[in-house]
Every structure is written in structure tokens, then in C-alpha cells.
Amino acid sequence: VQLQASGGGLVQAGDSLRLSCLASGSGRPISTHDMGWFRQAPGKDREFVAAISWGGGSTYYADSVKGRFTISRENAKNTAYLQMNSLKPEDTAIYYCAARRIGGYTDVRGYRYWGRGTLVTVSS
After folding, report:
1. CB 122, CB 87: distance < 8 Å
2. Can you give the pLDDT at residue 30?
3. What does the DSSP 8-state code read for residue 34?
């Protein structure tokens, strides 16, 4: 499975962005995999942002983004999304999508496949 994240960019505080994660490749379809979004700010460890179960029925969020970010997926399009509203400078990071959960939903080591990431920069 290959994952390609897109949709990052430079925005001002308070703006919105929607990130997309397109899955491709052979093997089990992405619709059978739980998926997650993580981020890594300069000089910091990669951290959990949001996750969604394979059917979309369960979602999980980091406290820092709860109420501002929404994770969703369209299995027919092999795509997961992260809608980010009310962005803050502290949201600045490279955002990575991940698939095929092998551990906890919020665990950085809990996913088998990772995309390359897309940069989100929020100016104040």
C-alpha cells in the first residue's frame, strides 16, 4: 500500500485547510484498514492527530485538535481526509497519513504503512 498526502500549504491563523490521503497499491483494499493522521513539528517527535476506523464509524482525536479538526474517509475513492479549521501557529508541522493499524489508534508505532507527508505552515 502506498499513501500520498496532499493539501498542505501556508495559511494564516484562523484559516482552514483540508488534507487528503490517497491510497494505492495491491493487497487488501484500503477500505479494510484503519487510518490515522500524525504530525511532526520541527525539533519535536511525531505525534498523533486523528484516526478513523475502517468503516468510518469510530473516530479519535488528540486533545489539542478536538473540536477543530475532523477526520473522514471515502472508501470508494481510497481516500482519507483531515479537515482542519481554526488553525493555530502551533499546528505548523509536516502531516503524515498512516494505514493498517497494528497497534493502538494513537500509537505512532501502531501503523504499518506511512505516506511521505505534507507541510502545513500557519502564520500568526
Report:
1. yes
2. 78
3. -
